[in-house]
Amino acid sequence: GAGVSQTPSNKVTEKGKYVELRCDPISGHTALYWYRQSLGQGPEFLIYFQGTGAADDSGLPNDRFFAVRPEGSVSTLKIQRTERGDSAVYLCASSPGTFTGELFFGEGSRLTVL
Amino acid sequence: GIQVEQSPPDLILQEGANSTLRCNFSDSVNNLQWFHQNPWGQLINLFYIPSGTKQNGRLSATTVATERYSLLYISSSQTTDSGVYFCAVMTTDSWGKLQFGAGTQVVVTP
What we know:
The structure holds two protein chains of two kinds.
Chain A: E1 5-7, E2 10-13, E3 19-24, E4 31-37, E5 44-50, E6 53-56, E7 65-68, E8 75-79, E9 88-95, E10 104-105, E11 109-113
Parallel strand pairs in A: 2-11
Antiparallel strand pairs in A: 1-3, 3-8, 4-5, 4-9, 5-6, 7-8, 9-10, 9-11
Chain B: E1 4-7, E2 10-14, E3 19-25, E4 31-37, E5 43-48, E6 52-56, E7 59-64, E8 69-74, E9 83-90, E10 99-100, E11 104-109
Parallel strand pairs in B: 2-11
Antiparallel strand pairs in B: 1-3, 3-8, 4-5, 4-9, 6-7, 7-8, 9-10, 9-11
């Protein structure tokens, strides 16, 4: 597609539930990134993929968070046993490669945990 | 990790005014981007500028990598310029990790 696409745009769930957020990067971009943005703050790094593999997952806050990119294109961020503190906007970005070039962000998935 | 400081934190402008936003960073960078986050939350790329000067319409940016700062200039501001402006950097020690500053909240009044 023309830009990074994220679904759903909004997700409301109850504490303890499982959530999946999807990201479809710009066609041909090999690097894919997940960030999280809380109200009033800048985005914070979670994980990035180069191809199918997670090159750096050091930003994932704990083992309830997991992300996959099985075919090197679409990625899914998975959150188990959601907590109210997980409420945030989850942003996905892609770039032509990790070592060069700009990151382009999607519109984000707003997660609200009640 | 690298520290990214943006100033001022808030800026109120009258339509037509010019302004300068600053981004200081604490280490050498190989990637620097300026973004505008609109009121709907979309991060819009303004400049990819690890060094040098670029211009795009009423906006321009300069990065002086040796002195570890970047400037974003907004000329003849319009109400549509309102939003949060973020500077984000990446270092050779942190491939893939774009570190964002706290942003500058800009409000342009008619």
